[in-house]
Design a protein that fits this description.
The complex is a heterotrimer of chains A (77), B (347) and C (426). Chain A is α/β, with parallel strands linked by helices. Chain A contains three helices and three strands; from the N terminus they run αβαβαβ. Chain A has one domain. Chain A has a three-stranded parallel β-sheet with strand order 1-2-3, sandwiched between helices. A six-stranded mixed β-sheet of chain B has the order 2-3-1-4-5-6, with helices on both faces. The chains are: A alpha/beta (77), B alpha/beta (347), C alpha/beta (426). Chains B and C meet through helix 7, strand 7, helix 8 and helix 11 of B and helix 7, strand 20, strand 21, strand 22 and strand 26 of C.
Chain lengths: 77, 347, 426
């Protein structure tokens, strides 16, 4: 799906846990997430703590969208 | 009795070699050359009513004309099946067989079959659209080719179900088909490993694919002014799954309005995905689709706007082709709606 | 380590006053089995049914299939760490009711449970249509949480299987097979010329409903480690998962792991089967990296020339599979991988979620998306209406006459990735 959105001319960031699959299928901007059943959360924490982490990941995704890339890039930070 | 029309080149019609490759297409009644072997192999179930002979150079140099002439000839015979070749490793003959078989299939709608060597350029050109039986690289393999082509020809003419390439002898055509092998999988694996270890030849049952690539789009200039849309393969849907998106192997996607929704809660949203433990996503669907955070960012002016609709499907066992089809459709909508960027989350 | 498996062949199954095995028939006292299940207060009711090969019976939703076994000689008991004490098993003698199985069903636990048809098209795809099945239908008390339900049903299956296995304890088996794995040093001395081969067994461990247990430990909390192959024959590994029915390894598959049996078949002849490396399929990327690093490291440490890697499930475990393959190949060790495919209903889509050029020797259990038609059956054990929601089903899968149109995914064990079946695809 990520590739078709890119193909349509819309910049897209893929937020996913299994980065190797994302790389194999060809996403260009990738933000690694926490775990498969809860990519943007961590049930071990309180809801408030979770939201802080979620926000940080989403902000990283926004930063990725604002960053020019020429090849597949994983935004680890 | 099934009626068959057979296509061969000047060489197999005994007209001559390269020096006679210019001869135009002609129709002869009944069997010519290799047709005899086919006729025998059909065992009374099918009959070659006519043979079309055409020079390889003539066909390739007068492509449109030759095609039209030959199609006319085939049409008049009203056959149940069209066989071209086998062409073995003869390049122009292989391309001619593929081209004319394809044209007959498309224009007359009758089943077609051809055969050639795997390295014949015609194989790569047509193996995904036609049944091409894999033959040896020279006419010495005629007997073997007929043995494989004749039964498949009868199946095609009778419109029977065609099995997997490994069973029927045609070249793999990109369509995966199940069949029962001779040995169980574990035994096949042990045998394959023993061959690999001893440097013998082994054939993988699934060749690794090449994935295509799309160049990245330019970055968003200023996210504070951008409309951001959310898309997920994590199956987040309004509770109750109103569109019945399948838990696995999804055949559809959902588009849902989140105007005024500030936070996804256990009461209103859930996941339809059957491939991961759904408990965490069901308790707080923001863990998969971060609507709460994006609303906060929207309020604070850190993004222009969260797009009114999100798109969702279940990425579990869903054919890549399906997912691709969904995205092709909604990406156009997103574009038309003026969305500047997409955040796609996956589980 | 040496284990003798004594096969007591079961050709029929009947209800009777007294549970026993006589002349190849397994007689079962229904009430005793029910009472055994209802010892667990999580169940409000239980029923027991029979399903024999060729009968017009559909069992669904199937949770697990378990073969009855009993330890006759040697340390420990079947299902160590789960039901029996956590003793190291895999040596001595174990008797098996070959041809019989316990099948657990009841109200659906999760999406991913399957169908066993005892006749017709569906029966051709599942190995369990060839068995004399004792089907236990367990109904949970109201309000029982999904995970507790799964656990209760899992244990009900083991208990019933052990109850039946017990019947074989003092019987003389029809056949005895011996499986022996020497230690590494002895193995090298015995077969200095033969290529050394290990088996990398990947275990589903993606979550609370997608788990496998090793000596009672949840596999997602384990590091990649090693077992003697015979430990697995005594139930060291059990299934506790609800992944798609077609490619989940039931407890029956673990007990009868075909890769282990086929490697033993060649052991000492064409290869030296040194042991089993078990590794998990977790949901964190770091876990995937660590576990696959360790499979490669252990393969290297064992000094093997080749490995067979079997997967469980599909989707992101495709990544674990490819990581295992790539990292082991990088050590100069030859690999063959066993997987299955999700190539779409028409077979023309991408089969795997991940790929790598080093995976050049692949065995496939078939395309799980291929659509099949299952004829109506005279009798349904369980609930036919879940056909529309289990993985591989879709809106309208279940027809008014009781027939089902669905993807092969719905059939328990159909595209098994241990290579249990003859099914393949091209």
């Amino acid at each position: 799906m990520v590739k078709e959105i890119e193909r349509a001319g819309i910049p897209v960031v893929h937020m996913c846990t299994v980065v190797p699959i994302s790389l194999t299928v060809g996403a260009n901007r990738i933000v690694p997430t926490i775990a498969i059943p809860h990519p943007l959360g961590n049930p071990a924490l309180t809801m408030a703590e979770e939201k802080v982490i979620r926000r940080a990941l989403v902000e990283r995704a926004l930063k990725a969208l604002e960053t020019e890339v020429s090849e597949q890039t994983v935004f680890e930070k | 009795m099934l009626k068959v029309v057979h296509y061969i080149n000047q060489f197999f019609a005994n007209i001559g070699g390269e020096e006679m490759a210019h001869v135009p297409a002609e129709l002869r009644e009944g069997v010519v050359g290799p047709g005899l072997a086919f006729q025998q192999a059909f065992g009374g179930e099918a009959e070659i009513v006519a043979t079309i002979v055409c020079g390889d150079s003539y066909f390739n140099e007068n492509l449109e004309k030759a095609k039209t002439e030959i199609i006319e000839m085939v049409k008049k015979q009203n056959p149940d099946l069209f066989i071209a070749g086998p062409a073995f490793n003869a390049g122009r003959y292989g391309v001619a067989c593929g081209t004319i078989a394809q044209a007959v299939k498309e224009e007359l709608g009758i089943p077609v079959l051809t055969g050639m060597y795997v390295e014949n350029p015609g194989a790569d050109m047509f193996k995904n659209s036609l049944y091409i039986v894999s033959t040896k690289n020279s006419a010495a393999g005629m007997k073997d080719a007929v043995k494989k082509m004749a039964p498949l020809a009868l199946k095609l003419a009778n419109k029977e179900n065609i099995g997997a390439s490994a069973e029927e002898g045609y070249m793999p055509n990109g369509v995966r088909k199940n069949f029962f092998d001779q040995e169980r999988g574990s035994k096949r694996a042990v045998n394959m490993l023993l061959n690999k270890l001893s440097g013998k030849e082994y054939v993988t049952e699934f060749p690794m694919p090449d994935f295509d690539r799309v160049a990245p789009n330019p970055a968003v200039k200023d996210v504070r002014k951008a409309t951001i849309a959310l898309v997920t393969s994590g199956g987040i849907v309004p509770k109750g799954n109103p569109d019945h998106i399948e838990s696995s192997s999804a055949s559809k996607y959902g588009k849902y309005d989140i105007e005024g929704v500030m936070d996804l809660t256990e009461e209103t949203f859930a996941t339809a995905h059957g491939g991961y433990d759904p408990v965490y996503a069901n308790i707080d669907p923001d863990r998969v689709l971060p609507v709460d955070v994006l609303r906060d960012l929207e309020k604070e002016g850190k993004i222009g706007k969260l797009h009114r609709y999100f798109y969702t499907t279940v990425g579990n066992g869903t054919a890549v082709k399906n997912a691709k089809g969904f995205a092709e459709k909604f990406a156009q909508e997103l574009k038309a709606d003026g969305v500047d960027a997409v955040i796609l989350t996956s589980t | 380590m040496k284990l003798e498996l004594g096969y007591v062949f079961i050709k029929d199954i009947q209800f009777a006053e007294q549970s026993k095995v006589e002349n190849g028939t397994l007689y079962v006292n229904k009430e005793e089995v029910k009472a055994l299940i209802l010892e667990d207060q999580n169940f409000k009711s239980a029923d027991v049914e029979l399903a024999r090969p060729g009968e017009s019976i559909r069992i669904m939703p199937v949770k697990d299939v378990i073969e009855p076994r009993v330890k006759v000689d040697g340390p420990g008991g079947i299902f160590p760490g789960m039901v029996s004490k956590v003793e190291t098993v895999g040596s001595g003698r174990t008797n098996v009711l070959k041809g019989a199985a316990v099948v657990t069903t009841g109200k659906i636990v999760g999406f991913q449970e399957g169908i066993i048809d005892m006749t017709g098209t569906g029966a051709e795809y599942t190995p369990f249509s060839k068995l004399n099945n004792l089907v236990v239908v367990c109904e949970p008390v109201d309000g029982l949480k999904q995970h507790e339900h799964e656990k209760a049903l899992r244990f009900a299956g083991y208990k019933v299987a052990m109850y039946l296995g017990q019947l074989a304890k003092s019987l003389t088996p029809d056949e005895v097979h011996t499986y022996e794995t020497p230690n590494l040093v002895e193995g090298l001395k015995l077969y200095p010329e033969l290529p050394r081969v290990a088996y990398v067994l990947m275990l589903q461990s993606q979550g609370l409903m997608h788990d496998t247990y090793v000596y009672g430990v949840d596999a997602k909390q384990t590091l990649t480690t090693m077992l003697y192959p015979t430990e697995i024959m005594d139930g060291a590994i059990v299934s506790g998962n609800c992944v798609s029915a077609c490619d989940k390894n039931t407890t029956y598959h673990h007990l009868n792991n075909p890769v282990i049996h086929d490697l033993f078949e060649e052991h000492g002849k064409t290869l030296n089967f040194v042991g089993v490396i078990i590794t998990n399929e977790n949901v964190y990327l770091a876990d995937k990296e660590r576990s696959s690093n360790w499979s490669a490291k252990l393969a290297e440490l064992l000094g093997v020339d080749g490995v067979i890697i079997s997967q469980e499930g599909f989707g992101n475990p495709d990544t674990d599979l490819i990581m295992n393959c790539k990292k082991i190949e990088a050590k100069g060790i030859k690999t063959v991988i066993i997987t299955d495919e999700y190539a779409g209903r028409d077979g023309s889509s991408q089969s795997l979620a991940d790929a790598d050029a080093s995976a050049d020797a692949v065995v496939t259990g078939g395309n799980a998306n291929e659509v099949i038609e299952l004829p109506p059956m005279d009798k349904i054990i369980g609930y036919a209406e879940v056909a529309d929601i289990i993985a591989g089903g879709f809106d309208g899968s279940l027809h008014a006459d009781g027939s089902i149109t669905a993807e092969l995914q719905v059939i328990t064990g159909a595209t098994n990735e241990m290579g249990f079946n003859k099914l393949s695809a091209r």
